Amino acid sequence: MQKLSLEARVREHLERARAASTDRSAETVYGGHEHVLRQTVIALRAGAEMSEHDNPGEATLLVLRGRVRLHSEAQSWDGMTGDLLIVPEARHSLVALEDSAALLTVAKAP
Fold first, then answer.
1. What domain range is 56 assigned to?
2. pLDDT at 92
3. What is the Cα–Cα distance from 51 to 23, expressed in whole angstroms?
4. Pick the residue with more confidence: 82 or 55?
5. Beta partners for 104?
6. Count of the separate structural domains present in the chain
7. Is residue 70 within 8 Å of residue 92, measured between CB atoms?
8. For residue 33, is it within any domain?
């Protein structure tokens, strides 16, 4: 069994995002290409955006800190610390309304 502190990862990646020219930082904390399940901590500075991209598979976004907006087609959903957003099965984008971190969980069919 392994254990990690999401709070420590959030602090680390928010610091990295604040220092990065891209205004973001991310790390896969569990799984990866060889697994069905993948969990990634994503940190974004206020105003930073992950531009529109395809749905990676079944996915959720747990907001660990801050406020974000998930946008797809003509709909958008705001999430704040503690909210779980279901990622739509369509192209979508994510913007940080304030310095934010989230846990993206994706399950891809083998």
1. 6-107
2. 92
3. 13
4. 82
5. 40, 61
6. 1
7. yes
8. yes
Which residue from 23, 25, 53, 30 is spatially nearest to 105, judged by alpha carbons? Answer: 30
Query: If you search the block for the tokens 């991209």, which residue do you land on?
Result: 53
Nearest C-alpha neighbor of 65 from the set 2, 3, 14, 1: 14
Q: Which two tokens stand for residue 81?
A: 């610390």
- Is 54 domain-assigned? yes
The 3 state secondary structure assigned to 68-110 is: EEEEECCEEEEEECCCEEECCCCCEEEEECCCEEEEEEEECCC
Residue 1 lies in a domain: no
SS3 48: coil
Tens of pLDDT, residue by residue over 5-26, are: 999 999 999 999 999 999 999 9
User: pTM of the prediction?
Assistant: 0.92
List the CATH number of the domain containing 57: 2.60.120.10
Q: What's the token pair of residue 65?
A: 């800190």
